[in-house]
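Sample pair:
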Amino acid sequence: MSTTKLKKLTMAIESARVFISNVVIGDQPTNYPQEAVDIFLTAVEEAEKVASIEGSEGQDLDAAIVLLQRAEEILRAAENPVPDDEVLTKVVQLIGTDSERKGAHSIHFGKVIINFKDGQAELSKELADELIDAGYAE
């Protein structure tokens, strides 16, 4: 058994477990379909079986690594896309004259520090709307 290849497979399995722990299953944008997650988990289980077999050949270990890589590619491709018409950010402009906006500025807004460059910042829609409502930006 190739110790180096076994170590690579073990690291690939750990990486796959970390990746899947951050996946959200559902129909919303950036979520993953249950079927794609199940396929990925099956690939992880198969790779774990290969890693646990005493005396696994180098080619078996390599095949398990490739299986995991391909399964992750397939899962990432199955991620529910963000619709083109759904804008997640908004650019806001500090209130003031052009000369007042020049350079770098920061606003402490609640528990958030917002940095502006030449009076502009790209923020989440919610935060941008809060700044506008509070009279800091337009």
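The first strand starts at residue 89 and ends at 93.
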